[in-house]
Amino acid sequence: MIYRGLGNRLFDSINVMVLILFSLITVLPFVHVIATSFATQQDYMQSKFLLVPKQFTTAAYQYIISNYLLLHSLMITIFITVAGLGESTAQDVSLSPIPIVYPFLQKRNSVRLC
Length: 114
What we know:
This is ABC transmembrane type-1 domain-containing protein. This protein is mainly alpha-helical and 114 residues long.
């Protein structure tokens, strides 16, 4: 077994503590958001930071699913994505040198000075 000095053990201990702290700082906000989404409004208003809801409810998700605005916004997102992809693809195709079309584009875009 290799002997590890006090400096190495101290560094490892501090390193582990810093990584655990960083992990908690990173993960706890997500846990808070998820716990808040499943908590009642009274539980949310009574606590500053909620990790486990006192009363579990899915009322917020039921409201979102029953509302037509979620489907409407999803359709708008799909439309914008497809339109942007189509526009980008059309622009790439029009600027790329396709062997069949490229000679015609060269003749059309050429300038004769004589």
